Amino acid sequence: MAKDRQFALSLKQPWACLLVHGLKTIEVRRWPTARLGRILIHAARLPDERREAWQYVPEELQEHASLRGGFVGAAQLVGCRPYRNRQAFAADKAAHLNENSWFEPAGLYGFVFESPEVLPFQSYPGWVRFFTVTSDPIVRKSKKPS
Question: Is the preceding omega at residue 105 within 30 degrees of 0, hence cis?
């Protein structure tokens, strides 16, 4: 069933899993966006290898966090927050889950997400920035995370 063009964003695991389960609400990037609306969340083929990234994954989500190379959910992108200094970055740590030491002096941007939803895994190639999906690869929705 074809739908209008949709946008997707690829995140390394466990970040994709944490976002679609509502445990992470801000995705940090080096570039800003004006894009808003429903974004499909894609789990990249390569995971984040840093041990501190995986400390946020509860036991019951370990299997979901192991999914790679496809869509794992969606969420509403509602804004983009600039981080011009370490203090602003640190103030949102509970939402983006990144260590304060990860801040870059050139500045970072926080993509603010709401209304996450877990979707059945669908293998699909990703891209480094937003990418378009011209047909709906996922027709069924699962229940929203609690």
Answer: no
Number of domains making up the chain = 1
71 in Cβ contact with 8 (< 8 Å): yes
User: For 72, phi and psi rounded to 5 degrees?
Assistant: -120, -10
Per-residue pLDDT of the chain (146 residues; tens, 9 = 90+): 445 789 999 999 999 999 999 999 999 999 999 999 999 999 999 999 988 899 999 999 999 999 999 999 999 999 999 999 999 999 999 999 999 999 998 889 999 999 999 999 999 999 889 999 976 665 444 444 43
Query: Is 103 part of a structural domain of the chain?
Result: yes
Which tokens sit at 100? 């304060």
Which structure tokens are listed for 128?
A: 């480094």
Residue 34 pairs with which residues in a beta bridge? none
Q: Which three-class secondary structure state does DSSP give residue 62?
A: helix
